[in-house]
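To: structure desk
From: M.T.
Subject: fold request, one chain
Message: Could you run this one when you get a chance? Sequence is below, nothing fancy, just the single chain.
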Amino acid sequence: MISVLFSWLIIFFVLYSFGEIFIAIYRKICKTTENYNTVDIALIGLCFTVLLLSISSLFIPSNHYILISYCIIAILYWWKNKEALAEKIKKGKSFIKRLSTIEKCAAILPVVSLLLYCYIPDQFYDAEYYHYQQIRWNEEFKVVPGLANLEDRFGFNSNYLLVSAIFTFRFLFKEAHYTLQSVVFLCMIYWTLASFITSGHKVQYIVLFFLFSLVFLTQSYMFGASSTDIIPILCSLYYLTKIIISPDVVKKQPLLIFLLPVLLVTFKLSSGILGLVCIYICVYLIKQKKYKHFLFLLSASVFIIVPWLIRNIIVSGYLVYPVYIVDIFSFDWKVPETSTILQYIHVENYAKDMFSLTFHNFLSLKPGDTINFVFFIIISISPLFVSYLYWKNKIVNRYLAIYLFIMTCIIFSLYTAPDFRFFYGYLLAGIFLLYILIFPLQGKSRRISILGNCSFCLIISAWLFLSVNKFIDATNHINLQFTKISDIAMLYRQRGVKILSSFREYKLGEHTIYITYKKEDNRTFDVIPATSPYGIPYEPFIGLRMQDIRTIETRGENIGDGFRTKKEYIDIIERNREKYIEEYYLYWKNTQ
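Reply: Done. Structure tokens follow.
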């Protein structure tokens, strides 16, 4: 557990420091005095870290050498700004001293609960199938041309998997840690706790704390393992609730409000709808003649988006994989168009299947899915309630605008890929806004002390109870024995791993590719280069590996030179497009 705590501290130190550096640059160039809280600074630091990393990854691997460089930069920055650092530490100590005993206990429990969750990460199929390996590719190599030919899901190219590569701490602990998302979550949880205390125990922060807790309780499997979904969920919830609580932040904190949606779209395409706020900010800045602000934000966005697009092109041959409609390149490593279309269909189809499964689980009274679906029903009928409030002149225009924006985000997600993972942040933000509309006095003015503290402690105690149960189950699952204190204090363990004996070797030219033995267990974990067997044109695509390994060849003498589909197979695959699509739909129909 010490290794997890250590990783949290280093990640937060880097993100917070780089946030301070980026804000300092922004203030100096734009002559502004915008103020940001701790979470804001960490998220801005994440934007800046990804900006730099996206550029450097085009030329060098993203590993511990980059992390060490970032730590040195952060240390030098604080050495130069010792007085500012001392003042921050002083304010932190002062705040902690003001806390009651109950509040201090409430502050400790989230860390303990999350430690238990991260100690033995849950099994998460996508992570074990390709996330871990793609992170390892980012650690070992600069961006690899045609990597999506080896495993087409590498073409998704989430910047989350890129930034996670420098925070695995593999060089220290011999196995990768995936704790970036838990750091972001802890920052937001402590924001709600601190806001509740400093606001004089406003009820709205108990509601907000409960909603963030739901993310933990219903999406907990994403916190220990890598997941490209959880940070967009957390950030979209934080982003929207921050605007709900104080709509003026859109104008007062444009650096965060503009850049966060830009960052999130490089993590998960479904976050792109948040970019509508960026258009509003651009119009506002131009009207206010704040041209330096406008150019700074635009330039920073370009430096985040353009390297990501370049990486997309290098990895898959497409500007945004698997959006096959935008097809403007013809590199030799380009993934065949038929394969891209099949993956596009699968992403859409799988999301619909997951939505249907949530409805089925709701009827089966599974707690997490039941809560989610009840919230979805509430949001679905909320237009009737909001229309009534508008008709009675009981809703101010700014809240109406925020509500319409949240509904637009939800509708967009339902139309493109109706999976709760892709719009969960919007859904919970919508619930929070409805609470504010229904109970405006409680939401803004009413304060409670003892009941509020007890509510926080009750929710966090539920965390701890579930975390302990999960920990016991996980240790039994892998038959983990604790013979000395260091066993529980130091280590970080996976529920399952794969070693080279779990694979068979396949010669791809002069190189060895590790192929999983069993079709039903095609997870490769972080073994590279590795992939699962089967695929078109020899077997139908059923949502796992796209193309058979026999269709692939290397592009050079080194693995880092990349992969491409053999020309003769490109012709075969393109000729039989309709057949593969028909086989795919037939398979899914038979499995329902």
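Reply (cont.): The radius of gyration is 24 Å. Let me know if you need anything else for the meeting.
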